[in-house]
């Protein structure tokens, strides 16, 4: 959410749309830049090791571990959602709300929730098989 970056920044509507598109499609851009000869696996590997590290630090009892995670929550009406969580010895000890969204982000969230609901249902169906 660009409206919540720290330190705070302001963007024109055009900049917001441009940056959002680049962020959302970064993996595709890497594949296209490699002309189909590879994928964005290093980005995924880095994200995985970073998340594993913060989980282990939380389980060890380190204080102030906040990271984004896709977990069961009540942040939205969906049963699962990605948001900031405070990690600790028992896992996700606090789930943070999204905070104030601008109009562009509210519209994007509503669109995303429709697709996310289908993906969640697909995942739940897969687990139940």
Automatic annotation (TrEMBL):
GO terms for molecular function: L-malate dehydrogenase (NAD+) activity. It holds the Pfam family Ldh_1_C. InterPro entries: Lactate/malate_DH_C, Lactate_DH/Glyco_Ohase_4_C. It comes from the Eukaryota. It is an enzyme of class 1 (oxidoreductase). Residues 2-126 form the Lactate/malate dehydrogenase C-terminal domain. One of its GO terms (cellular component) is chloroplast. One of its GO terms (biological process) is tricarboxylic acid cycle. PANTHER family: MALATE AND LACTATE DEHYDROGENASE (PTHR11540), MALATE DEHYDROGENASE 2, PEROXISOMAL (PTHR11540:SF52). This is malate dehydrogenase. It comes from Davidia involucrata (Dove tree).
